Amino acid sequence: MAGSGQISQAKSHEKQNSKAKSQHPMTQIATRSLFENQDVRVWEMDVAPGETFGLHHHTNDYVLYITGAANLHVDDKNSGPYDFVCHDRSVFYIKAGGTESFRNISATPFREALVEIKRPARPGQDRAGFTCSEALVGAPDRAGSVCVMENERMRIVETTLPPGEGLGMRRCERDAAVFVVQPSKVKSVERDAAGPEKVKEETRNTKDVCWQPGGVERDLVNVGKSLYRQISVEVK
Fold it and tell me: Which pLDDT does position 25 carry in this prediction?
């Protein structure tokens, strides 16, 4: 009988969820999907002034990197309405489970890169909670890489390279999703124990995304004529 009761409760719960979804039809979590594999999915968000982005639910932990500052009025189905101020180069880590919609109440477009972490958390891994860093807001451009935020789920690194500057060969232990913030022509050099050194020159455009496997040595040089910037989300 206990089993029968559990089935009955499950069916009742399914009906409630179905009713809730019909009352609040869901949309995707951002404007456009740019890249996806088994570990991450990378999106761009682009919402014009005065526009509303519809109700959506986050099933994965995720990272936000703001590329277009704006003020948002958020309608959160769990915690209620609130205003959310976003600055260029602000970084956020948010745990899965939120259901919200929002309106851009600024006179400028709201833009961000959103990286979902699809890789399942390891047993006992601390998934952390809401975290914000504004360490880079208004900061001058400096050549090199800086870790903006880190927890047991991920590590966020911003890399800025003026023309002619490089990072130098360094060990990259973790897999990472890379989102291009400011474009330029770059040369990448990759070395691992399994084969010869790989050298590639390419123009990376704004919103380009690539997946970089860990366990290799890597260098990146800006061989273009403009400042290059990328954000990397290393998955743990």
Answer: 60
Which pLDDT value is given to residue 5? 38
Alpha helices in the chain (DSSP H): 2-23
114 CB neighbour count, 10 Å cutoff: 22
pLDDT, position 27 = 87
CA–CA dist 167, 2 (Å, integer) = 62
Answer yes or no: is pLDDT of 22 > 60: no
Helices and strands in the chain: count of H runs, count of E runs: 1, 19
Q: What residues contact 73, with CB distance under 8 A and at least 6 apart?
A: 81, 82, 83, 84, 102, 103, 105
What span, in angstroms and rounded, lies between the C-alpha atoms of 9 and 93? 34
Report pLDDT digits (tens) over 150-203. 999 999 999 999 999 999 999 999 999 999 999 999 999 999 887 789 999 999
Count CB neighbours of 83 within 10 A. Answer: 10
Instruction: Write out the two tokens for 180.
Output: 């291009």
Amino acid at 121: A
Q: Sign of the C-alpha dihedral, residues 213, 174, 89, 45?
A: positive
DSSP states along 51-118: -EEEEEE--SEEEEEEEE-EEEEEEETTTEEEEEEE-TT-EEEE-TT-EEEEEE-SSS-EEEEEEEE-
Closest CA to 144 of 73, 232, 204, 68: 232
